[in-house]
Amino acid sequence: MEALFLSRLQFAAATIFHFLFVPLTLGLSIMIAIMETRYARTGEEVYLKMTRFWGKLFLINFALGIVTGITLEFQFGTNWSRYSAFVGDIFGSLLAIEATAAFFLESTFIGIWIFGWKKLSPKAHAIVMWFVAGASSLSALWILTANAWMQHPVGYVLRNGRAELESFTAVIFQKFAILEILHTLSAAYILSAFFVMGISAYHLLKKQHLDFFTRSFRIALTFGLIFSLFEVVEGHLHGSDLAEKQPAKLAAMESHWESGRQAPVYLFALPDEANEKNAIEILPLPGVLSLLATHSTEGVVKGLKDIPREERPPVLINFVSFKTMVALGMYFVLMTLVGFFKRNRLTESPGYLRLMLYSIPLPYIASELGWVLAEVGRQPWIVYGVMKTSEAFSPVATSQVLTSLIAFILIYGILGAIGFFLIIRLARKGPALAG
Under the phi-then-psi rule, with left for phi > 0, alpha for psi from -120 to 50, and beta for the rest, what region is 283? Predict the structure, then answer.
């Protein structure tokens, strides 16, 4: 195995593991802020208990996110030094802003929130949680802006063999960045909603803490329904933007080979990349891809055959990731719509509650597939159209990368086992253990 492949594998493993914790931090912080605000306004003790219970789950998750995120950023220097040297003027500035203006702010307010229960009024303490939620989203905004620049580089000039920043506003306000931010944050809010609903469903099935978990479920249900519906609309906008800015990725997502009008969408296909066609095509819907990409069934969608082989992303992994992600997105809409009509008789719907309990992992899968699609679909480019991944990795020995990869897997495995054990243990015990 080559150092390049191992470096990619290591970064992928670290990113996938880190993103197990990021979405829950983003969404759960907002729901906790809502719960604590209700306590501050009404004085009802149940909302205080909800804040404390879900807050402890949030803190465990947040701690794991910090540990995995720090090591992830180090890899830009250890494994991808050529990339860092080439784009450091742009990419580095965005990461620096994230750390100094968002992460430190978030960590500071979390510290105030943890130790301020007896020192701040209920309203002031609730406001602190809103600052935590805002800082979490601000942190994500800068990271996603940096990634969006890799997907669609703007606002730079090539000078002295490096990409140098020319327009900061072009980088942060470009359409691709805005759509990526909206898509990723919405996915995080859906994940958090299903996390809360799933744990609440577990306790409602056991007929314990009924008022507590019914209220928790309803707050999360409203949150999840709004953003499940929003994600469908935003996903369509994101897809049509890809047709213009990353046609190779869109073609791989749909296993679309021939350029032309009336481009179809397939429910399922089996790409045959060697022969540049689909070996199997199930349920073609003529014109639907053209409609989604260009807002007209007569719109022309570029096919993979019109893209040089060396610039095509892997088709099968992108196609399967995309179709699975879309199917899960439709499932989230369905389950939250059903929940909306059952919200006043949840304990009378054990079948629905069991489905919600078993659905906890599904938004995690959807989010991870989204990142697989974003990163694998960009290949062979690390900066789309500017720098290839093969040009970006560090000149390090294969043995060094293999050793660090094994170490990452072992350490992350131990951290993950401990973290998930604590989360599951606290979730099953309920508010009695949370205090």
Answer: left
User: Tell me: the pLDDT tens digits for 334-374?
Assistant: 999 999 998 888 888 889 999 999 999 999 999 999 989 98
**Distance between CA atoms of residues 23 and 142, nearest Å:** 15
What is the 3 state secondary structure string of 294-339?
HCCCCCCECCHHHCCHHHCCCHHHHHHHHHHHHHHHHHHHHHHHHH
Is residue 118 classed as helix, strand or coil in its secondary structure? coil
Query: Residue 52's pLDDT band (boundaries 50, 70, 90)?
Result: very high
Identify the helix (H) or strand (E) that includes residue 245: helix 210-245
Paired tokens of 126: 């609730």
**How does strand 156-159 pair with strand 277-285?**
unpaired
pLDDT tens per residue across span 301-310: 888 888 888 8
CB 46 within 8 A of CB 211: yes
Token pair 């469903």 in the structure block, residue: 201
Does the N-terminal peptide bond of residue 380 adopt cis geometry, omega within 30 degrees of 0?
yes
Structural contact between residues 241 and 179, judged by C-beta atoms closer than 8 angstroms: yes
Please report, for the chain, the start and end positions of each structural domain, with discontinuous segments joined by +. Answer: 3-259+302-434
Q: What is the pTM of this model?
A: 0.91
- Helices and strands, counts by H and E, the chain: 17, 6
Yes or no: say if 151 and 374 are a contact pair by the CB < 8 Å rule.
yes
- Give 257's DSSP letter: -
Distance CA 138, CA 21 (A): 16
CA distance 57 to 419: 10
Q: Report the distance separating Cα 72 and Cα 79, nearest Å.
A: 10
Nearest residue to 124 (alpha-carbon basis) of 60, 36, 51, 61: 36
Q: What is the pLDDT of residue 1?
A: 53
Q: What is d(CA 347, CA 207) in angstroms, rounded to the nearest whole number?
A: 8
For residue 176, what are its two tokens? 């691709």
The structure tokens listed for 403 are 């050793």
